[in-house]
Structure formats: C-alpha cells, structure tokens
Amino acid sequence: MENWILYGKSGNPSFEVTKAWLKNHGIPAEVRSVFRITEQEIENLANISPRGVKGLAFPDAFSFSLINPQRASDQTLIDKIQSNALSDNEVKSLLVENPYLIVSPILTNFETLIIGYQYDVMVNKFRFFKVRDIQQA
User: Is residue 42 part of a domain?
Assistant: First the structure.
C-alpha cells in the first residue's frame, strides 16, 4: 500500500475537504501541518512538481491575498517568487522560513503530487485503489 501524506493548514476549507474525502473513501494518509514542513520535504516535492519549487508557492499575489488577507505585506514575496527574481535555492529557503507561502493542501506519495483540492484528479488517481482492513465506526 502506498504511503500518502497530506500537508495543509487547519481551517483551510480545501485542506479540510481533501482530508474528509480521503477518510470517506478509506484512503489512509498521514496528515502533516504545512507549518512543520522541512527543507528536505520541500526539495522532494519540488522534484516532482512540474514547475519545480515555484509550483509549491501561490501562483500570484491576488490568490495569496484571498487566502491570507492578514498578510498583505507578504504579497511582494509571491511576486518575487513567480517573477523568477529568486533562484530555486532562494525560493526553497523562503518557503522553509515562511510556509504560509505554500499552497495547500498538498497530497503526495513523493511520486505523485496533487496541489490544491482537485476532485477529478483524486477520483482518477484512486479509482482502483484497494484498501484493506477498513473498520466502520
């Protein structure tokens, strides 16, 4: 059985829906806070992300401000990341120091990467997923 990890932020609706979807479909996943993500985990995720480490950060300042209105002053960090003003190593360090810049949820087994709540992708990925020893509550 594959070991899935779900990174997220408590209170984030997309994270909570993804967590519930996995539970309701009997798919075991270790839940981890994105605020405790390590540099090595970011590097591993960046290696399987189509856009590299920049793909782990919010795509633009507008979407960041919608999710994090209290962090308006940090919008410039997103602009720096997405404008290629920073090297990959600088972006990685920035994400370790400021994990709130990472889009969540992130669902991975370090071979597959699903960023954000993507219902269709999860349904297709887990269509033939076999779960054993599920006990009903």
Answer: yes
CA dist 117 → 17, 24, 96, 120, 121 (Å): 8, 15, 22, 9, 9
Question: Can you tell me the distance from the alpha carbon of 61 to that of 81, in angstroms, rounded to the nearest whole number?
Answer: 10
**Using CA atoms, how far apart are residues 55 and 102, in angstroms rounded to an integer?**
9
CB 74 within 8 A of CB 99: no
Query: pTM higher than 0.70 for the full model?
Result: yes
Give how far Cα 82 sits from Cα of 37, 55, 78, 117, Å.
Answer: 21, 9, 6, 21
- Per residue in 53-103, pLDDT (tens digit) is 999 999 999 899 888 888 888 999 999 999 999 999 999 999 999 999 999
Domain extent, residue 84, equals: 4-125
